[in-house]
Specification:
By secondary structure, this protein is α+β, with helices and mostly antiparallel strands. The protein has 25 helices and 18 strands. The chain has five domains: 4-66 and 127-212, Alpha-Beta Plaits (2-Layer Sandwich); 69-123, no CATH class; 220-339, no CATH class; 345-540, Hypothetical protein af1432; 566-688, Isoleucyl-tRNA Synthetase, Domain 1 (Orthogonal Bundle), CATH 1.10.730.
Length: 692
């Protein structure tokens, strides 16, 4: 068994971009592991480390040397290797020379294409130490760095200037030069607490040494937990709870090596400003953690995380309080200024903002969306005029000072301003809910008006952008059309909205003036959304063939399609499912191959077998029973009743020759089978199911 050692690699830098730190760390570790695997070097595990000033990885149990490999090189075909006198040809001589042997040292192998000469040898494995520099360079070159930089007069390029390089293979330093820095066994501690070099004797000592001597928590998850726990504990000191946004937590963790929380406060008068604006200023601009009470109401405190264990924390506290005050003063000024103008008064200013140069302004879009939102609201049982009103005002807060400063507050500030203006509560809430869901897994709008405005706005965008010939391509989707389509589907399905998507798309199309967009845009969007529905349904656990069976019928309503899929999943478990699926496949194939012109209805006077009459009567019975079930959307019960056709269908195929010689009888039987198939197609094409 090969000897093994641990490998430690650390790249010490200037402060790395905090939002990219985790990505860079994971990519670097992955690159090193890939290098080991490509060099056929086994290892036990790899642990990445990341702080603002370093990317590192500790790989345990790396083999000291590559295993020897048997190498086989194929030379010329045997018939081309010797001339008619049995002498080696130039091809053979050249191949043998390249292998460093005489022609008679080559072996012959038999293949399906004849006999060939081959050279077999044992390639001795290289020492791992010699391979490590190239692995590191390859991993660094593969890092996802959009723009690399140079420093000083060096030719090396990296995301930030590199100051030290630590490479240990066991206790041995792997001597090399990478990014214009020579390797060693010295790392650096905290920039202020321990700026002097720290010698690492063995990779296993790395984490403990940096923490105890260097004042650096090098394990990202440990540092992250420390930040979270200390921030929460600080908030509890004032009987509050810290608002810990996951993205902000990661970013703050990426900014510090030795986190220390510091509680700050601000003037209570600022609490008159909508708390979302204050929270946005704290989180987005200052990287502070806000503090709220048990009811979620903002308290006049914030928590900042320092990268130093200061002997004068009060100085840091006062400095941060001075910084946040003018930002809050600006927010208060914007709030007071914006309240002086109603949302309705901002409608005209939307004319100056282009939605898309071929599709007009935001004012034009709001007019289109208002008409569609009113129709959706009416269909869902709300007041049409309220839906229209909400959509008319839906983009007005974009013209406010507050949203201009904090774009992430669009919709949220709309609700505040609508309440201030005296709009109905339903309209105000809809202005906030129109953007929901904002991201994957986000909450859905709960009110009808919020659902109506959000769906109408996204449908208008989808039809308009498709209509000017700019659908998503590959991984490019500048208008977020995939996200818009998925949001509509989520709202319709998860909120159980019985909306006819095809009809709404046609209405959205009608909102654009003549020749403004492609006349077939609504059809293209419908096809696009069916494909999104396919992926969405499968992500929720539906089997691909159940989804295919339903979507092949092109249902108009996403919610109705979801009900059908659920019912088909249940149908699969019935004893009759396999037989009926097989029969439907058979019917489909028979009808596909037939050129006969079929009558619209089945004429029982042409029946020649009792099996025909039995299936005819059973079909009529089932049709009568399921008609109200289909109307009510009770597809599960409908399919269970359809399963009762199994015996009659099986008997029909056992006793009846469909393709009779008499053309009239044959056409009548084909029409009869078509009616059987159409019965199932009202729910799904079960011929596509893989059951049995």
């Amino acid at each position: 068994m090969a000897n093994k050692r641990d490998l430690l690699i650390e790249i010490g830098t200037e402060e790395l971009p905090p939002k990219a730190l985790l990505t860079l760390s994971e990519a670097f570790s992955s690159g090193i592991c890939s290098g080991l695997e490509q060099n056929q070097l086994n290892y036990l595990s790899a642990t990445p480390f990341a702080t603002p000033r370093r990317l590192a990885v500790h790989v345990k149990g790396v083999e000291e040397v590559q295993a020897d490999r048997e190498v086989e090189r194929r030379g010329p075909a045997l018939k081309a290797a010797y001339d008619k006198d049995g002498n080696p040809t130039k091809a053979l001589q050249g191949f043998a020379r390249s292998c460093g042997v005489e022609p008679d040292a080559l072996e012959t192998v038999e293949t399906d294409k004849g006999q060939w000469l081959v050279f077999r040898s044992t390639q001795k494995g290289q020492q791992t130490e010699a391979l490590i520099p190239d692995m590191i360079n390859a991993a660094l070159n593969a890092l996802p760095i959009p723009k690399r930089m140079r420093w000083g007069d060096l030719d090396s390029e990296f995301v930030r200037p590199v100051h030290w390089l630590t490479i240990l293979f066991g206790e041995q330093v792997v001597e090399t030069e990478i990014l214009s820095v020579k390797s060693g066994n010295a790392t650096r501690g905290h920039r202020f607490h321990h700026p002097e070099p720290i010698i690492i004797k063995h990779p296993n000592e790395y984490v403990k040494t940096l923490e105890e001597q260097g004042k650096v928590f090098v394990v990202f998850s440990v540092r992250k937990d420390r930040v979270k726990n200390m921030v929460q504990a600080s908030a509890e000191e004032v009987d509050g709870q810290a608002v810990i946004d996951p993205d902000l937590l990661n970013e703050v963790t990426s900014l510090v090596e030795y986190p220390m929380p510091i509680m700050g406060s601000f003037d209570k008068k600022f609490l008159d400003v909508p708390q979302e604006a204050l929270i946005s200023a704290m989180q987005g601009h200052q990287k502070y953690f806000p503090v709220v009470d048990d009811e979620g109401k903002l308290m006049p405190y914030f928590i900042t995380v320092s990268n130093i264990d200061s002997s004068q924390p009060e100085v840091i506290k006062k400095g941060n309080e001075r910084v946040i005050r003018p930002r809050f003063a600006d927010a208060m000024f914007f709030w007071e200024q914006d309240k002086a103008h109603s949302l309705e008064s901002r409608l005209e200013s939307l004319k100056s903002v282009t939605f898309q140069h071929k599709l007009g302004s935001l004012y034009d879009k709001s007019k289109r969306v208002a008409k569609l939102a009113g129709e959706i609201a009416k269909q869902l049982g709300a007041e049409e005029l309220q839906g229209i009103r909400a959509a008319q005002l839906s983009k007005c807060d974009l013209m406010s000072e507050m949203v201009g400063e904090f774009p992430e507050l669009q919709g949220i500030m709309g609700e505040y301003y609508a309440n201030h203006d005296g709009e109905t509560k339903q309209v105000a809430v809809a202005l906030r809910e129109q953007y929901m869901p904002r991201f994957a897994g986000d909450l859905l709008p709960e009110t009808i008006l919020g659902q109506a405005v959000g769906i109408a706005d996204r449908l208008d965008t989808l039809v308009g952008i498709f209509g000017i010939g700019q659908p998503p391509t590959g991984d490019k989707d500048p208008f977020g059309l995939r996200r818009a389509a998925l949001s509509i589907l989520r709202v319709c399905v998860e909120s159980e909205l019985p909306l006819n998507l095809k009809a709404l798309l046609q209405q959205a199309q009608a909102g654009f003036t003549d020749n403004m967009i492609d006349a077939k845009a609504h059809q293209q969007v419908f096809d696009f959304m069916l494909e999104r529905l396919r992926g969405y349904a499968q992500d929720r656990g539906a089997r691909y063939d159940s989804v295919d069976a339903v979507l092949s019928c092109r249902p108009d309503s996403p919610y109705d399609a979801s009900l059908r899929m659920h019912s088909v999943e249940g149908f699969r478990a019935l004893d009759a499912a396999a037989s009926l699926a097989s029969a439907n496949k058979r019917i489909h194939n028979i009808l596909k191959k037939s050129d006969d012109k079929l009558p619209e209805t089945t004429d029982p006077t042409y029946f020649e077998h009792a099996a025909e009459r039995a299936l005819y009567d059973k079909l009529a019975e089932v049709q009568e029973v399921i008609a109200p079930l289909l109307k009510a959307g009770d597809y599960t019960q409908a399919l269970e009743n359809m399963a009762g056709l199994r015996e009659s269908v099986d008997r029909f195929f056992d006793e009846v020759m469909v393709m009779a010689e008499d053309a009239t009888v044959r056409a009548n039987r084909l029409a009869f089978l078509q009616s059987v198939r159409h019965l199932f197609l009202q729910i799904a094409d079960i011929s596509k199911l893989n059951v049995g």
